[in-house]
Design a protein that fits this description.
It contains 6 helices and 14 strands. The chain is α/β, with parallel strands linked by helices.
């Protein structure tokens, strides 16, 4: 297994011999407006892709956690990924149909098997209280195969009972956590904070946590260095990595 962070939540995962693309955002730097006003304002994304789109747009499978612009954008919709199978939550299937995706696999709560991999969809709660309703439905996914470790892609969620239950049920060896403590000008964070990762570490002490979803979209206030510093101060930074854009993380059986 290999995991490569492309940018933000876009991931390239080699799993059970397949190339899986997660949450493709292919837009160039500054293609979108700011998500905040004031000192934190900036056009988005704040950085370019670390590679050519041609390195990304021929996956064996695409996984979409949800279709906010920072997880699925026009450039991705118009790319060659529409010729490959795509797993999504049912609410997003009509959009993929409108984008002429040729093989859409909408997942409710049941498991789906695809070429030796079993996928489980989980609930991603994209914020606290009423803000989670405003942000709409989101998903995470658990991947299992006989050849690779169990992987949990959290999607855009905060720490809650559903995340804890997913970890308890599936016991993932690798957890891809969408961090950044994303926050608008008002309201609490809508993605994971350092404190949320401490909660994950407490219930999953043996897993490798890969923190992504940082330093690309301007409402993500928590950067890699500060995240790792906060975890180090709590004595809980072991087996946590916050990869740079474009960085590949190969897996070995001794990693977790």
């Amino acid at each position: 297994m290999k995991i490569r962070l492309i940018r933000h939540a876009t991931l390239q995962i080699e799993y059970n011999g397949l190339e899986i693309l997660v949450d493709p955002m292919f837009a160039p730097r500054h293609a979108f407006g700011s998500l905040t006003i004031g000192p934190s304002a900036s056009r988005n994304p704040m950085n370019d892709l670390p590679c050519a789109i041609s390195e990304l747009d021929h996956p064996d499978l695409t996984i979409l956690t949800h279709t906010h612009f920072d997880h699925f954008d026009k450039e991705a919709a118009l790319s060659n990924i529409r010729h490959s199978p795509a797993i999504c939550q049912p609410a997003d299937a009509p959009l993929l149909e409108a984008c002429n995706f040729e093989n859409i696999i909408p997942m409710a709560n049941e498991s789906v098997s695809f070429r030796g991999i079993t996928f489980y969809r989980t609930i991603a709660t994209h914020g606290h209280s009423i803000l989670s309703k405003v942000m709409g439905k989101g998903s995470g996914y658990v991947l299992k195969s006989t050849n690779d470790p169990c992987v949990y892609i959290t999607g855009d969620t905060i720490w809650n009972r559903q995340v804890a239950a997913t970890i308890e049920q599936h016991k993932p060896q690798v957890i891809l956590a969408n961090c950044g403590a994303a926050r608008f000008n008002i309201g609490a964070p809508i993605t994971m904070t350092a404190g949320d990762l401490l909660q994950i570490r407490a219930v999953s002490p043996g897993s490798l946590i890969i923190a992504v979803h940082m330093e690309s979209i301007n409402h993500c206030r928590l950067g890699r260095n500060r995240l790792m510093k906060e975890l180090e101060n709590a004595g809980m930074s072991h087996d946590v990595v916050a990869p740079a854009d474009g960085q590949e993380l190969p897996w070995s059986s001794g990693d977790a």
